[in-house]
Recover the amino acids of this structure.
């Protein structure tokens, strides 16, 4: 990775780092806009990770595919003694071993959600038997004699037709 080419770049970076003892963490005092609290800085119309930048300033260029890991696990630490070069696989296994990864709930596949919506639409609108309606509370077809119809405001400022049977009373929005 190439180094940013800004005059006085090193001064801009070092003056936002609180330097302490050689074995202590040196916290970044600048912007922490990273989701995990890591310092970020804008140079040469690019956003740079501060630990990567500090590593490049003290150890040289990072090879292609290289990651910068911390031995202290403090996201704001910029002490060059705490930074080490690692591969992506080492970085991820280290983070997993130390329980530093964020697990996200898996969302249903878009095709599955779309297919379910299409089935629901067809059931309610296209294949409606004459004299019957689909109750959204009971989730079944009922005769029109039990129909209660309501217009509800939606978020876009329009209205949505809601059909339900009188057995439930007015359903809650």
């Amino acid at each position: 990775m190439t180094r940013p080419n800004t005059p006085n770049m090193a001064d801009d970076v070092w003056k936002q780092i609180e330097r302490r003892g050689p074995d202590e963490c040196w916290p970044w005092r600048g912007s922490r806009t990273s989701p995990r609290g890591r310092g970020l800085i804008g140079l040469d119309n690019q956003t740079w990770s501060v630990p990567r930048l500090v590593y490049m300033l003290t150890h040289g260029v990072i090879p292609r595919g290289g990651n910068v890991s911390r031995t202290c696990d403090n996201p704001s630490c910029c002490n060059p003694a705490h930074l080490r070069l690692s591969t992506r696989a080492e970085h991820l296994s280290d983070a997993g071993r130390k329980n530093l990864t964020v697990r996200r709930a898996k969302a249903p596949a878009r095709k599955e959600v779309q297919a379910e919506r299409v089935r629901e639409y067809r059931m309610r609108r296209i294949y409606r038997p004459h004299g019957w309606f689909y109750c959204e509370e009971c989730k079944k077809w009922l005769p029109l004699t039990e129909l209660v119809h309501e217009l509800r405001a939606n978020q876009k400022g329009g209205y949505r037709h809601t059909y339900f049977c009188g057995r439930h009373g007015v359903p809650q929005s």
